[in-house]
Amino acid sequence: MKIEILNNTPFLKWDGTFNKMEALLLSGKIAGICYDKEGFEHLKNEPITKTERRIDLTLNNGHHSVYDHIMISFNMQEIPKILAMVINNEHQYTTSEKSARYTPVIRKENSDITELEETLYQKWLPIFENEIKKQYDFMKDPKIHKLAQENARYLISVFTPTHMIYTTSLRQINYLASFMISYINDADYQNPFEKKLALSMIPFVNELERLKVLDEGLLKNEKERKLSLFGKNLDQKDIYYGDIYATRYQASLAEYAQAQRHRTLDYQLEFLKEKKFYIPPIIENKQEIVDNWIKDMNQVKEFTPQGELVTVYETGKYEDFLLKCKERLCSAPQLEIMRQTRDTLLEYKKALEEKNHPLKEDIEKYSHGARCTFPDFTCTSDCEFKEGKTLTRKI
Predict the structure, then answer these.
(1) Spatial distance between the Cα atoms of 299 and 52, rounded to a whole number of angstroms
(2) Are 129 and 145 in contact (CB under 8 A)?
(3) How confident is the model at residue 221 (pLDDT cuts 50, 70, 90)?
(4) Residues 49 and 129 occupy one common structural domain
(5) Other CB atoms closer than 10 Å to residue 380's CB: what's the count?
(6) Distance between CA atoms of 316 and 324, rounded to whole angstroms?
(7) Is the pLDDT of residue 300 over 90?
(8) Which of 38, 89, 93, 103 has the greatest CB tally within 10 Å of its CB?
(9) DSSP 230
(10) Are residues 81 and 36 in the same domain?
């Protein structure tokens, strides 16, 4: 794993490390704005000793919000997909990640991808291509190949390395490091998944130390916060639909990675007691192919494939759920999250109708198909795909 700071980041030194002292000094001056009578121009020119005292005060009393003014962009290379999911579940960030739709699985020297994963991926690519061609013969070969890649990657480990640009604040990257340090210390090293994830966090934290972005004051984690990705006893949590909502369902790890990008909503996952795997709808009615799929999934189950199902608990506000619908109820997004969003929408609608909730008439307007049927959405690129518009597609 390698992490670099992009040169669009202020306070970047010639050697690629972060000038933390200069960043702290600016934050220390900003911290004085709440009570300084003469404004920021006066603070910019105050004695450095006064700024340093304010830095020491804010770092040690937990008033860390001033350090959110300092944004840092990281180029994260060869980061495990699950570790990307861990940090993407914390809401203060912007990220651009390499898409599995456009990324063939190729095992390189010293790769974390096993030979078995690569072999099974290559086995299933033509199977999916053949099934897609049979059912959707109007699609062009590049589109078919892209969709086949998207489905074959369910066999690949969630620890597969990816590449992303990640931007967050000085405070948040320190908080993330502190959450990871807690996870490293508390992990069950008899559990293969927890052990592997904890061990992947060590080089991540080490890279941040090398880049000089970590600060002892920001790492304290006095509230003992934990990583938000992992929930406990999610099967016992309430399901509710109203002005706010809470719902629970099973989804693949690949779908979860898509869902968590809706940062106005909150998500947690929990592994099932017995392993289950997602079955792509394009093959679900062909028992022989399904049996073959499950057999191959079981061959890679120890690697935590992206097609492994987990329990997901999703919470948020009604209006933010509608924003998710406007993003996912379309022929373009990943099929699995489109279907789950559709199912949640229909459950939401039914619950509002049963309790005669004031929102029942509003949600009805969004229940007639894809987002292009919504009264407040304008499609700028007609897919001309009937099953996409009726939300009945299988690919």
Answers:
(1) 58
(2) yes
(3) confident
(4) no
(5) 5
(6) 11
(7) yes
(8) 89
(9) B
(10) yes
User: Using CA atoms, how far apart are residues 297 and 76, in angstroms rounded to an integer?
Assistant: 29
CA atoms within 13 A on the CB side of 99: 10
Reduce the DSSP state of residue 94 to 3 states and report it. strand
Q: Domain range holding 36?
A: 2-95+161-210
**What is the total count of domains within the chain?**
3
pLDDT in tens, 227-250: 999 999 999 999 999 999 999 999
Report the pLDDT averaged over residues 366-388.
Answer: 95
* Beta carbons within 10 angstroms of residue 137's beta carbon: 8
CATH for 317: 3.30.70.3180
Give the whole-angstrom CA distance, residue 110 versus residue 120: 19
Q: Is residue 302 part of a domain?
A: yes
- 82 within 8 A of 197, measured Cβ to Cβ: yes
Rg (CA), the chain: 24
Same domain, 176 and 74: yes
Measure the CA–CA gap between 79 and 90, rounded to whole angstroms: 16
Q: Using CA atoms, how far apart are residues 203 and 238, in angstroms rounded to an integer? A: 38
Model-wide pTM > 0.90 = yes
3-state SS class at 260: coil
Q: How far is Cα 45 from Cα 51, in angstroms, rounded to an integer?
A: 10
d(CA 350, CA 344): 10
Element (H, E) at 133: helix 115-135
Residue 71 in tokens: 């944004």
Q: Please, are residues 46 and 108 in contact by the beta-carbon 8 Å criterion?
A: no
Q: Reduced to 3 states, what is the DSSP secondary structure of residue 317?
A: strand
pLDDT averaged over the chain?
A: 94
Q: Which residue has the tokens 């456009």?
A: 102
Specify the length of the chain in residues.
395
Which residue reads 């060590």 in tokens? Answer: 202
Write out pLDDT tens, residues 5-46.
999 999 999 999 999 999 999 999 998 888 777 788 888 888
Spatial separation of the C-alpha atoms in residues 267 and 229, rounded to whole Å: 7
Q: Does 257 map to a domain?
A: yes
